[in-house]
Protein backbone atom coordinates (compact mmCIF):
# COMPACT_ATOMS: atom_id res chain seq x y z
CA UNK A 1 0.00 0.00 0.00
CA UNK A 2 1.39 3.37 -0.99
CA UNK A 3 0.69 5.37 2.15
CA UNK A 4 2.26 8.53 0.72
CA UNK A 5 -1.05 9.36 -0.95
CA UNK A 6 -2.76 9.58 2.43
CA UNK A 7 -3.54 12.91 4.01
CA UNK A 8 -2.16 13.11 7.57
CA UNK A 9 -4.49 12.85 10.55
CA UNK A 10 -3.30 16.27 11.70
CA UNK A 11 -4.32 17.77 8.39
CA UNK A 12 -7.75 16.09 8.46
CA UNK A 13 -8.31 17.39 12.00
CA UNK A 14 -7.30 20.93 10.97
CA UNK A 15 -9.70 20.90 8.06
CA UNK A 16 -12.50 19.51 10.20
CA UNK A 17 -11.90 22.10 12.92
CA UNK A 18 -11.93 24.87 10.31
CA UNK A 19 -15.13 23.53 8.73
CA UNK A 20 -16.84 23.31 12.12
CA UNK A 21 -15.87 26.89 12.91
CA UNK A 22 -17.15 28.15 9.57
CA UNK A 23 -20.43 26.30 10.03
CA UNK A 24 -20.92 27.57 13.58
CA UNK A 25 -20.24 31.18 12.53
CA UNK A 26 -23.08 30.80 10.05
CA UNK A 27 -25.39 29.19 12.56
CA UNK A 28 -24.54 31.42 15.54
CA UNK A 29 -23.30 34.82 14.31
CA UNK A 30 -22.42 35.90 17.87
CA UNK A 31 -19.71 33.24 17.83
CA UNK A 32 -18.17 35.07 14.86
CA UNK A 33 -18.29 38.33 16.83
CA UNK A 34 -16.60 36.59 19.76
CA UNK A 35 -13.88 35.20 17.48
CA UNK A 36 -13.06 38.69 16.17
CA UNK A 37 -12.90 40.04 19.70
CA UNK A 38 -10.55 37.26 20.80
CA UNK A 39 -8.28 37.80 17.77
CA UNK A 40 -8.08 41.53 18.51
CA UNK A 41 -7.28 41.01 22.16
CA UNK A 42 -4.71 38.30 21.45
CA UNK A 43 -2.98 40.55 18.92
CA UNK A 44 -2.91 43.41 21.38
CA UNK A 45 -1.52 41.24 24.21
CA UNK A 46 1.27 39.97 21.94
CA UNK A 47 2.08 43.50 20.81
CA UNK A 48 2.30 44.86 24.34
CA UNK A 49 4.07 41.91 25.91
CA UNK A 50 7.08 40.93 23.79
CA UNK A 51 8.38 38.69 26.59
CA UNK A 52 5.18 36.62 26.48
CA UNK A 53 5.37 36.57 22.72
CA UNK A 54 8.86 35.09 22.67
CA UNK A 55 8.02 32.64 25.46
CA UNK A 56 5.03 31.38 23.48
CA UNK A 57 7.17 31.14 20.38
CA UNK A 58 9.79 29.19 22.28
CA UNK A 59 7.13 26.79 23.57
CA UNK A 60 5.67 26.36 20.03
CA UNK A 61 2.39 27.77 21.34
CA UNK A 62 2.22 30.73 18.99
CA UNK A 63 1.58 28.90 15.72
CA UNK A 64 -1.44 27.07 17.06
CA UNK A 65 -3.02 30.03 18.84
CA UNK A 66 -5.25 31.21 16.00
CA UNK A 67 -6.52 27.76 15.07
CA UNK A 68 -7.00 26.60 18.61
CA UNK A 69 -10.47 25.85 19.88
CA UNK A 70 -12.64 23.23 21.51
CA UNK A 71 -16.21 22.22 20.92
CA UNK A 72 -18.85 20.25 22.80
CA UNK A 73 -21.44 17.68 21.75
CA UNK A 74 -23.91 15.45 23.57
CA UNK A 75 -24.91 12.02 22.30
CA UNK A 76 -27.80 9.77 23.27
CA UNK A 77 -26.67 6.15 23.00
CA UNK A 78 -23.67 3.85 23.27
CA UNK A 79 -23.84 3.17 19.52
CA UNK A 80 -23.65 6.90 18.80
CA UNK A 81 -20.68 7.27 21.13
CA UNK A 82 -18.85 4.38 19.47
CA UNK A 83 -19.49 5.87 16.02
CA UNK A 84 -18.21 9.26 17.15
CA UNK A 85 -15.07 7.63 18.56
CA UNK A 86 -14.44 5.93 15.22
CA UNK A 87 -14.81 9.20 13.30
CA UNK A 88 -12.58 11.16 15.65
CA UNK A 89 -9.89 8.46 15.50
CA UNK A 90 -9.52 9.17 11.76
CA UNK A 91 -8.48 12.69 12.76
CA UNK A 92 -6.09 11.57 15.50
CA UNK A 93 -8.49 12.43 18.34
CA UNK A 94 -8.69 9.95 21.20
CA UNK A 95 -10.78 9.85 24.38
CA UNK A 96 -8.90 11.37 27.32
CA UNK A 97 -10.27 11.57 30.86
CA UNK A 98 -13.60 10.73 32.47
CA UNK A 99 -15.88 13.49 33.76
CA UNK A 100 -18.82 12.72 36.02
CA UNK A 101 -21.26 15.60 35.78
CA UNK A 102 -24.04 13.96 37.77
CA UNK A 103 -22.72 15.76 40.87
CA UNK A 104 -23.75 19.02 39.27
CA UNK A 105 -27.23 17.78 38.51
CA UNK A 106 -26.47 17.18 34.85
CA UNK A 107 -27.53 13.69 33.69
CA UNK A 108 -24.47 12.97 31.53
CA UNK A 109 -20.93 11.72 31.80
CA UNK A 110 -18.19 12.71 29.43
CA UNK A 111 -14.75 12.43 27.92
CA UNK A 112 -12.69 14.73 25.69
CA UNK A 113 -11.57 13.55 22.26
CA UNK A 114 -8.25 15.19 21.50
CA UNK A 115 -4.81 14.63 19.96
CA UNK A 116 -2.25 13.20 22.38
CA UNK A 117 1.26 13.35 20.95
CA UNK A 118 3.47 16.44 21.11
CA UNK A 119 3.59 17.11 17.40
CA UNK A 120 -0.15 16.63 16.86
CA UNK A 121 -0.96 18.94 19.78
CA UNK A 122 1.40 21.55 18.41
CA UNK A 123 -0.13 21.41 14.94
CA UNK A 124 -3.76 21.66 15.95
CA UNK A 125 -5.05 20.70 19.38
CA UNK A 126 -8.76 20.67 18.45
CA UNK A 127 -10.70 18.95 21.23
CA UNK A 128 -14.33 17.94 21.52
CA UNK A 129 -15.91 17.55 24.95
CA UNK A 130 -18.31 14.66 24.40
CA UNK A 131 -21.13 13.81 26.78
CA UNK A 132 -23.29 10.71 26.86
CA UNK A 133 -26.84 10.90 28.19
CA UNK A 134 -27.50 8.78 31.26
CA UNK A 135 -31.06 7.66 30.80
CA UNK A 136 -30.96 5.82 34.12
CA UNK A 137 -30.91 9.21 35.85
CA UNK A 138 -34.38 10.05 34.52
CA UNK A 139 -36.73 9.14 37.36
CA UNK A 140 -39.95 8.48 35.44
CA UNK A 141 -39.72 4.95 33.99
CA UNK A 142 -42.24 5.66 31.22
CA UNK A 143 -40.40 8.74 30.09
CA UNK A 144 -37.12 6.83 30.23
CA UNK A 145 -38.55 4.16 27.94
CA UNK A 146 -39.98 6.77 25.61
CA UNK A 147 -36.65 8.60 25.35
CA UNK A 148 -34.86 5.32 24.61
CA UNK A 149 -37.41 4.50 21.90
CA UNK A 150 -37.02 7.91 20.25
CA UNK A 151 -33.23 7.60 20.27
CA UNK A 152 -33.34 4.11 18.81
CA UNK A 153 -35.12 5.50 15.73
CA UNK A 154 -32.49 7.97 14.67
CA UNK A 155 -29.29 7.61 12.67
CA UNK A 156 -26.96 10.52 13.28
CA UNK A 157 -24.34 9.54 10.68
CA UNK A 158 -24.81 10.40 6.98
CA UNK A 159 -24.57 7.33 4.79
CA UNK A 160 -21.02 6.36 3.92
CA UNK A 161 -19.36 8.19 6.81
CA UNK A 162 -18.77 5.24 9.12
CA UNK A 163 -17.69 3.16 6.10
CA UNK A 164 -15.08 5.78 5.22
CA UNK A 165 -13.87 5.80 8.83
CA UNK A 166 -13.66 2.01 8.74
CA UNK A 167 -11.70 2.15 5.52
CA UNK A 168 -9.28 4.71 6.95
CA UNK A 169 -8.78 2.35 9.85
CA UNK A 170 -8.21 -0.72 7.65
CA UNK A 171 -5.95 0.79 5.03
CA UNK A 172 -4.14 3.28 7.25
CA UNK A 173 -5.50 6.54 5.91
CA UNK A 174 -7.65 8.48 3.45
CA UNK A 175 -6.77 10.01 0.10
CA UNK A 176 -7.30 13.67 -0.75
CA UNK A 177 -10.61 12.93 -2.47
CA UNK A 178 -11.85 10.79 0.41
CA UNK A 179 -10.86 13.45 2.93
CA UNK A 180 -13.00 16.08 1.23
CA UNK A 181 -15.97 13.74 1.44
CA UNK A 182 -15.14 12.69 4.98
CA UNK A 183 -14.80 16.22 6.38
CA UNK A 184 -18.05 17.37 4.77
CA UNK A 185 -19.94 14.34 6.08
CA UNK A 186 -18.38 14.52 9.56
CA UNK A 187 -19.21 18.23 9.87
CA UNK A 188 -22.81 17.55 8.82
CA UNK A 189 -23.26 15.24 11.84
CA UNK A 190 -23.00 18.28 14.11
CA UNK A 191 -25.16 20.79 12.27
CA UNK A 192 -28.25 22.36 13.74
CA UNK A 193 -31.67 20.93 12.86
CA UNK A 194 -34.52 23.31 13.26
CA UNK A 195 -37.09 20.50 13.04
CA UNK A 196 -37.53 18.51 16.21
CA UNK A 197 -38.18 14.80 15.72
CA UNK A 198 -40.98 14.82 18.31
CA UNK A 199 -44.26 16.65 18.90
CA UNK A 200 -44.54 19.55 21.30
CA UNK A 201 -45.99 17.51 24.13
CA UNK A 202 -43.14 15.02 24.07
CA UNK A 203 -40.62 17.84 23.86
CA UNK A 204 -42.21 19.49 26.91
CA UNK A 205 -42.19 16.30 28.97
CA UNK A 206 -38.53 15.59 28.19
CA UNK A 207 -37.68 19.22 28.86
CA UNK A 208 -39.34 19.00 32.25
CA UNK A 209 -37.26 15.94 33.11
CA UNK A 210 -34.19 18.03 32.29
CA UNK A 211 -33.50 20.59 29.61
CA UNK A 212 -30.47 18.61 28.51
CA UNK A 213 -32.59 15.51 28.00
CA UNK A 214 -34.76 17.43 25.53
CA UNK A 215 -31.65 18.82 23.85
CA UNK A 216 -30.16 15.38 23.37
CA UNK A 217 -33.26 13.35 22.54
CA UNK A 218 -35.51 15.61 20.42
CA UNK A 219 -33.34 16.39 17.41
CA UNK A 220 -31.94 14.55 14.41
CA UNK A 221 -28.36 14.79 15.56
CA UNK A 222 -25.87 15.89 18.21
CA UNK A 223 -25.61 19.54 17.15
CA UNK A 224 -22.44 21.29 18.24
CA UNK A 225 -23.51 23.32 21.27
CA UNK A 226 -20.55 25.67 21.50
CA UNK A 227 -17.08 26.37 20.14
CA UNK A 228 -14.38 27.97 22.24
CA UNK A 229 -11.38 29.93 21.00
CA UNK A 230 -8.29 30.33 23.20
CA UNK A 231 -7.48 33.79 24.49
CA UNK A 232 -4.33 35.17 26.09
CA UNK A 233 -6.31 37.51 28.35
CA UNK A 234 -9.68 36.19 29.44
CA UNK A 235 -10.33 39.11 31.81
CA UNK A 236 -10.04 41.56 28.94
CA UNK A 237 -12.42 39.54 26.76
CA UNK A 238 -14.88 39.16 29.64
CA UNK A 239 -14.88 42.91 30.14
CA UNK A 240 -15.25 43.69 26.44
CA UNK A 241 -18.09 41.23 25.71
CA UNK A 242 -20.99 43.36 27.01
CA UNK A 243 -19.59 46.39 25.18
CA UNK A 244 -20.02 44.41 21.97
CA UNK A 245 -23.53 43.35 22.87
CA UNK A 246 -22.45 39.81 23.80
CA UNK A 247 -24.28 38.71 26.99
CA UNK A 248 -21.46 37.28 29.12
CA UNK A 249 -21.87 34.85 31.99
CA UNK A 250 -21.15 36.63 35.32
CA UNK A 251 -18.17 34.63 36.55
CA UNK A 252 -15.00 33.27 35.05
CA UNK A 253 -14.71 29.58 35.99
CA UNK A 254 -11.48 28.04 37.25
CA UNK A 255 -8.44 29.51 39.03
CA UNK A 256 -7.93 33.25 39.52
CA UNK A 257 -5.73 35.44 37.34
CA UNK A 258 -2.03 34.74 37.99
CA UNK A 259 1.39 35.62 36.65
CA UNK A 260 1.87 31.95 35.74
CA UNK A 261 -1.53 30.64 34.63
CA UNK A 262 -2.51 27.14 35.74
CA UNK A 263 -5.02 24.72 34.19
CA UNK A 264 -7.90 26.48 32.53
CA UNK A 265 -10.06 29.58 32.98
CA UNK A 266 -13.34 29.78 31.05
CA UNK A 267 -16.32 31.99 30.52
CA UNK A 268 -19.20 31.95 28.06
CA UNK A 269 -22.06 33.92 26.61
CA UNK A 270 -25.61 32.85 27.28
CA UNK A 271 -27.34 30.41 24.98
CA UNK A 272 -29.56 31.82 22.24
CA UNK A 273 -33.24 31.17 22.01
CA UNK A 274 -33.81 29.49 18.65
CA UNK A 275 -37.05 28.83 16.86
CA UNK A 276 -37.90 25.16 16.34
CA UNK A 277 -40.66 23.24 14.59
CA UNK A 278 -42.35 20.19 16.05
CA UNK A 279 -43.00 16.96 14.17
CA UNK A 280 -46.35 16.84 12.42
CA UNK A 281 -47.47 20.17 13.88
CA UNK A 282 -47.68 23.62 12.36
CA UNK A 283 -46.81 25.48 15.56
CA UNK A 284 -43.31 26.63 16.39
CA UNK A 285 -41.53 26.66 19.72
CA UNK A 286 -38.13 27.69 20.97
CA UNK A 287 -35.06 25.91 22.25
CA UNK A 288 -32.03 27.32 24.07
CA UNK A 289 -28.90 25.26 23.94
CA UNK A 290 -26.24 26.84 21.82
CA UNK A 291 -23.73 29.36 23.07
CA UNK A 292 -20.15 30.60 22.76
CA UNK A 293 -17.28 30.26 25.18
CA UNK A 294 -13.68 31.42 25.60
CA UNK A 295 -10.82 29.89 27.49
CA UNK A 296 -7.36 30.75 28.70
CA UNK A 297 -5.01 27.82 29.22
CA UNK A 298 -2.14 27.47 31.66
CA UNK A 299 0.27 24.80 32.87
CA UNK A 300 -0.86 21.19 33.45
CA UNK A 301 -0.77 20.13 37.09
CA UNK A 302 0.51 16.92 38.65
CA UNK A 303 -1.72 14.81 40.89
CA UNK A 304 -0.44 16.82 43.88
CA UNK A 305 -0.99 20.13 42.12
CA UNK A 306 -4.47 19.10 41.11
CA UNK A 307 -5.33 18.03 44.66
CA UNK A 308 -4.17 21.44 45.93
CA UNK A 309 -6.21 23.19 43.20
CA UNK A 310 -9.34 21.20 44.03
CA UNK A 311 -9.06 21.87 47.74
CA UNK A 312 -8.47 25.62 47.28
CA UNK A 313 -11.37 25.87 44.86
CA UNK A 314 -13.62 24.07 47.34
CA UNK A 315 -12.49 26.49 50.07
CA UNK A 316 -13.34 29.52 47.97
CA UNK A 317 -16.75 28.08 47.10
CA UNK A 318 -17.56 26.96 50.66
CA UNK A 319 -16.67 30.40 52.02
CA UNK A 320 -19.37 31.78 49.76
CA UNK A 321 -22.00 29.69 51.54
CA UNK A 322 -21.33 31.53 54.80
CA UNK A 323 -23.76 34.41 55.16
CA UNK A 324 -21.25 36.62 56.97
CA UNK A 325 -18.89 36.95 54.00
CA UNK A 326 -18.64 40.38 52.42
CA UNK A 327 -16.02 39.39 49.85
CA UNK A 328 -16.99 38.74 46.26
CA UNK A 329 -16.28 35.29 44.81
CA UNK A 330 -13.38 36.73 42.79
CA UNK A 331 -11.84 38.23 45.94
CA UNK A 332 -12.19 34.99 47.88
CA UNK A 333 -10.64 33.09 45.01
CA UNK A 334 -7.64 35.46 44.89
CA UNK A 335 -7.26 35.24 48.64
CA UNK A 336 -7.47 31.46 48.89
CA UNK A 337 -5.18 30.85 45.88
CA UNK A 338 -2.37 32.82 47.53
CA UNK A 339 -1.53 29.34 48.85
CA UNK A 340 -0.74 28.09 45.32
CA UNK A 341 2.82 29.23 44.46
CA UNK A 342 2.88 31.59 41.47
CA UNK A 343 6.44 30.78 40.50
CA UNK A 344 7.61 28.13 38.02
CA UNK A 345 10.69 27.08 40.00
CA UNK A 346 8.65 26.56 43.13
CA UNK A 347 5.89 24.70 41.27
CA UNK A 348 8.55 22.40 39.81
CA UNK A 349 10.41 21.87 43.08
CA UNK A 350 7.22 21.06 44.93
CA UNK A 351 6.10 18.73 42.14
CA UNK A 352 2.91 20.68 41.43
CA UNK A 353 3.14 21.22 37.66
CA UNK A 354 4.58 19.67 34.48
CA UNK A 355 7.32 21.29 32.39
CA UNK A 356 9.57 20.80 29.40
CA UNK A 357 13.26 21.61 29.71
CA UNK A 358 15.40 23.80 27.49
CA UNK A 359 18.89 25.36 27.85
CA UNK A 360 18.30 28.94 28.94
CA UNK A 361 21.20 30.39 26.98
CA UNK A 362 23.64 28.76 24.51
CA UNK A 363 26.76 30.32 26.09
CA UNK A 364 25.85 29.23 29.62
CA UNK A 365 25.00 25.78 28.28
CA UNK A 366 28.45 25.48 26.69
CA UNK A 367 30.14 26.53 29.93
CA UNK A 368 28.20 23.89 31.77
CA UNK A 369 29.21 21.20 29.28
CA UNK A 370 32.84 22.23 29.62
CA UNK A 371 32.71 22.00 33.43
CA UNK A 372 32.33 18.22 33.22
CA UNK A 373 29.79 17.82 36.05
CA UNK A 374 27.45 14.81 35.96
CA UNK A 375 23.87 15.17 34.71
CA UNK A 376 21.66 16.55 37.46
CA UNK A 377 18.50 18.20 36.19
CA UNK A 378 17.16 19.75 39.42
CA UNK A 379 20.58 21.29 39.98
CA UNK A 380 20.77 22.65 36.41
CA UNK A 381 17.35 24.23 36.90
CA UNK A 382 18.30 25.70 40.27
CA UNK A 383 21.45 27.25 38.82
CA UNK A 384 19.56 28.73 35.89
CA UNK A 385 21.27 26.64 33.18
CA UNK A 386 18.02 24.97 32.19
CA UNK A 387 14.74 26.87 31.76
CA UNK A 388 11.29 25.53 32.60
CA UNK A 389 8.68 25.71 29.84
CA UNK A 390 5.16 24.98 31.09
CA UNK A 391 3.34 22.05 29.47
CA UNK A 392 -0.07 23.40 28.51
CA UNK A 393 -3.15 21.85 30.09
CA UNK A 394 -5.10 20.30 27.20
CA UNK A 395 -8.11 19.01 29.13
CA UNK A 396 -11.19 20.21 31.02
CA UNK A 397 -12.30 20.77 34.61
CA UNK A 398 -15.47 19.11 35.89
CA UNK A 399 -16.43 21.91 38.30
CA UNK A 400 -15.96 24.49 35.54
CA UNK A 401 -17.84 22.34 33.03
CA UNK A 402 -20.70 22.10 35.54
CA UNK A 403 -20.63 25.89 35.89
CA UNK A 404 -20.81 26.30 32.12
CA UNK A 405 -23.69 23.80 31.86
CA UNK A 406 -25.49 25.53 34.75
CA UNK A 407 -25.16 29.04 33.38
CA UNK A 408 -27.17 27.88 30.41
CA UNK A 409 -29.85 26.07 32.36
CA UNK A 410 -31.30 28.86 34.51
CA UNK A 411 -31.84 28.62 38.26
CA UNK A 412 -34.90 26.42 38.04
CA UNK A 413 -32.75 23.66 36.60
CA UNK A 414 -30.09 23.64 39.31
CA UNK A 415 -30.75 20.32 40.93
CA UNK A 416 -28.28 17.99 42.51
CA UNK A 417 -28.00 14.29 42.00
CA UNK A 418 -25.76 12.35 44.30
CA UNK A 419 -22.37 11.74 42.75
CA UNK A 420 -22.71 8.60 40.67
CA UNK A 421 -19.51 8.20 38.74
CA UNK A 422 -19.87 5.28 36.37
CA UNK A 423 -16.59 5.17 34.58
CA UNK A 424 -16.64 1.50 33.68
CA UNK A 425 -20.14 1.77 32.20
CA UNK A 426 -18.93 4.75 30.19
CA UNK A 427 -15.92 2.80 28.93
CA UNK A 428 -18.13 -0.15 28.05
CA UNK A 429 -20.37 2.17 26.00
CA UNK A 430 -17.35 3.79 24.39
CA UNK A 431 -15.91 0.41 23.49
CA UNK A 432 -12.57 0.92 25.25
CA UNK A 433 -10.78 2.73 28.05
CA UNK A 434 -10.27 6.48 28.25
CA UNK A 435 -6.65 7.63 28.50
CA UNK A 436 -5.34 9.09 31.75
CA UNK A 437 -4.47 12.75 31.20
CA UNK A 438 -1.96 12.94 34.07
CA UNK A 439 -0.06 10.01 32.56
CA UNK A 440 0.10 11.83 29.22
CA UNK A 441 1.59 14.94 30.84
CA UNK A 442 4.02 12.89 32.89
CA UNK A 443 5.17 11.10 29.73
CA UNK A 444 5.60 14.42 27.88
CA UNK A 445 7.77 15.75 30.70
CA UNK A 446 9.83 12.53 30.73
CA UNK A 447 10.40 12.70 26.97
CA UNK A 448 11.68 16.24 27.34
CA UNK A 449 13.94 15.29 30.24
CA UNK A 450 15.38 12.32 28.36
CA UNK A 451 15.96 14.33 25.20
CA UNK A 452 17.87 17.00 27.11
CA UNK A 453 19.86 14.39 29.01
CA UNK A 454 20.84 12.68 25.74
CA UNK A 455 21.91 16.01 24.35
CA UNK A 456 23.90 16.81 27.49
CA UNK A 457 25.72 13.48 27.34
CA UNK A 458 26.37 13.69 23.59
CA UNK A 459 27.63 17.25 23.70
CA UNK A 460 29.78 16.89 26.82
CA UNK A 461 31.95 14.30 25.14
C1 LIG B 1 -20.19 20.76 27.75
C2 LIG B 1 -19.76 21.65 28.84
C3 LIG B 1 -18.29 21.43 29.17
C4 LIG B 1 -16.26 22.93 29.00
O1 LIG B 1 -15.62 23.75 28.34
O2 LIG B 1 -16.01 22.68 30.19
C5 LIG B 1 -17.37 22.22 28.33
C6 LIG B 1 -21.61 20.94 27.28
O3 LIG B 1 -22.25 21.97 27.58
O4 LIG B 1 -22.07 20.05 26.54
O5 LIG B 1 -17.45 22.36 27.16
NI1 LIG C 1 -16.58 24.23 26.58
What does this structure look like?
The chain is of the alpha+beta class. Helix content is 49%, strand content 15%. It is built from 20 helices and 13 strands. It has helices at 9-27, 29-48, 50-58, 62-65, 78-90, 118-123, 141-153, 161-171, 176-189, 200-209, 211-217, 234-243, 303-321, 329-336, 344-349, 362-371, 377-382, 398-407, 423-430, 437-460, and strands at residues 6-7, 69-75, 94-100, 108-114, 127-133, 174-175, 226-229, 264-269, 273-277, 284-288, 292-297, 355-359, 386-390. The strands form 5 sheets. A 5-stranded mixed β-sheet has the order 3-4-5-2-7. A hairpin with a 7-residue loop joins strand 3 (94-100) and strand 4 (108-114). Helix 2 crosses helix 12 (234-243) and helix 5 crosses helix 8. It is globular.
Q: Please report the total strand number as a whole number.
A: 13
Distance between the termini: 43 Å
Structural class comes to alpha+beta
Strand percentage: 5-15%
The unique ligands bound to this protein are: 2-oxoadipic acid, nickel (II) ion
Can you list the strand order of the major beta sheet? Answer: 3-4-5-2-7
Shape: globular
Radius of gyration of CA atoms, rounded to a whole number: 23 Å
Helical residue percent? 40-55%
Report the biggest beta sheet as strand number plus sense, adding barrel if it closes.
5 strands, mixed
Average pLDDT figure: 92
Unreliable sequence segments = none
Query: What's the number of helices?
Result: 20
Amino acid sequence: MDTSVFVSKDEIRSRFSGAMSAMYQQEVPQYGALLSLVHEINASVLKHDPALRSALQQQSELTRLDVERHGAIRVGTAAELKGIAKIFAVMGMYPVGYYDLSVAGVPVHSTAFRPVDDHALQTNPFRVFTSLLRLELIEDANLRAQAAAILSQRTIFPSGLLELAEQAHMSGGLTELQVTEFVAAATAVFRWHRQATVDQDTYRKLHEAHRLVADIVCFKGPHINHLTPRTLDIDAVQEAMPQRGIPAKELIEGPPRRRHPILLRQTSFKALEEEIEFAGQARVGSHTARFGEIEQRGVALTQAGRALYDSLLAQARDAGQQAATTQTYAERLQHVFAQFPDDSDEMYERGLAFFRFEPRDPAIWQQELAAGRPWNLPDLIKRGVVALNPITYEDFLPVSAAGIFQSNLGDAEQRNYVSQAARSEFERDLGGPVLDEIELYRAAQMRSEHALQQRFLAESR
